Amino acid sequence: MSNTPALGERPFSGIGLGEESRQLLALAREFARDRLRPGARERDQNEESVDSEIMAEMGDLGFFGLRVPEEYDGLGLDVITYLRILEELAFGDPCPALSVSVHNSLPVEILCKQGTEEQRRAWLPLMATGEVLAAFSLSEAGAGSDAASLLTQADCDGEGGWILNGEKAWVTNGAAAGLTLMFARTDQPGDRRRSKGIGAFLVPGGLPGLSAGKKERKMGQRGSETVTMSLEDVRLGPEHLVGESHKGFQYALESLEGGRLGIAALALGIAASAAEEAFRYSAEREQFGQAVRHFQGLEWILGEMSVKLEATRGLLERAARARELGDVRARRLSSAVKLFASEAAGWITRRAVQVHGGYGYSREYAVERMFRDSRVTEIYEGANEIHRSLAARLVYRERNVSA
Ligand SMILES: Cc1cc2nc3c(=O)[nH]c(=O)nc-3n(C[C@H](O)[C@H](O)[C@H](O)COP(=O)(O)OP(=O)(O)OC[C@H]3O[C@@H](n4cnc5c(N)ncnc54)[C@H](O)[C@@H]3O)c2cc1C
Questions:
Q1: Which CATH architecture has domain 19-133?
Q2: Which of 57, 286, 315, 331 lies in the 20 to 30 Å Cα band around 399?
Q3: Which one is catalytic: 19, 381, 385, 398?
């Protein structure tokens, strides 16, 4: 294999790809460039999700089935190729990339690992094509970092089924979702068991009593819809419970470990996109009779950008490999890379605005949006303060040192 990057390959993209991955990545890159990037600014300004035509194309290309095993009509990709595709999509627009990440990393993953064969047959083929877009609903207004304090209640209906009541918050894909993996308490008010009293439920869209409420108006990632959801006596059959009724929180944490890799890939895509803009602009913009890239002050910023991108990619690949191999460090590494990638993206997008001077502050230039889009990667799927603590605590746990 040649060591020279293929024509059109970006300098910060992955090294050493197999032929199949290379083709898939080329497809994702082309799609992101031709179909996602052109509308990103308008979607941001109008606070609109990608339209149904683009969503359907994404389904046809297999993006919603990236992690669905082949036997259920998905592509069954390995973790590293999956993350590289997410990065490519986020390079074009992080909002549809977030939809793909939430769908594949969380509900698909939990169904694959904890679902019955019947549940997998019922849902995964529809999810693989994007016919059913899935959401993951753990957070509530009062339960964010402390997600185990959630209050939505699931009561047995006496016939093996469940009745759900409560209010969920911050549901990505929520209003459009054909299926929401919803977490609710299965313990009773007089006998609360924190994280050991929560179940995971498959809640199909359109059920009586289920409604999407307020759409959040956000600083960035405005092309991704985030809603509250309300459940009023939502009735579910026994086939809607995933795994054991008190282990939902454990399933959520296990899937979020993979989800955080997805968020890191998203952050990397945004950062790489902003860095490309900064490199290009610095070579074109002239002041004092020369391209601004020749001023040492900017050169050091550009150099630091390239190093941060490479460091993020290296850590992401290490974390992905650990997850694939089931290594004991996988959980710590997924926290570490989510933290590192999101802060690198924050650093890079902020400097990309600076490199563009006044134009970087104008909505005419994409770096202004990227700066806002990167910010939430430091907050969702665990705020970075939580990941800092985990980065320390999990080292002790790996060494069997108790709290
Ligand atoms: C755009 C967006 C999309 C989202 N999508 C989803 C989704 O699809 N599904 C879903 O379930 N949730 C989703 N969330 C929710 C998200 O996961 C939470 O916002 C996040 O976990 C933080 O919770 P919080 O907002 O309640 O902040 P809080 O937990 O209230 O935190 C407030 C501050 O206190 C800090 N803090 C809290 N506890 C500690 C601690 N122990 N140590 C140190 N600092 C601490 C936090 O780091 C933060 O700085 C989304 C959020 C956003 C913004």
A1: Orthogonal Bundle (1.10)
A2: 315
A3: 381
Compute, in angstroms, the gap from residue 145 CA to the centroid of ligand 1. Answer: 5
- Nearest-atom index, ligand 1, CA of 224: 1
> Distance (Å, rounded) from C-alpha 84 to C-alpha 64?
14
Contact 380 CB / ligand 1 (< 6 Å)? yes
pLDDT in tens, 36-81: 999 999 999 999 999 999 999 999 999 999 999 999 999 999 999 9
Query: CB under 8 Å to 303, separation ≥6 — which residues?
Result: none
CB of 139 sitting under 6 A from ligand 1: yes
Our answer to whether residue 167 is catalytic in this structure is no
Rounded to an integer, what distance in angstroms lies between the CA atom of residue 27 and that of residue 168? 36
Residue 145 Cα: closest atom of ligand 1: 29
Whole-number Å distance between alpha carbons of 334 and 344: 15
Give 69-81 pLDDT, tens digit per residue.
999 999 999 999 9
Q: Which CATH architecture has domain 250-398?
A: Up-down Bundle (1.20)
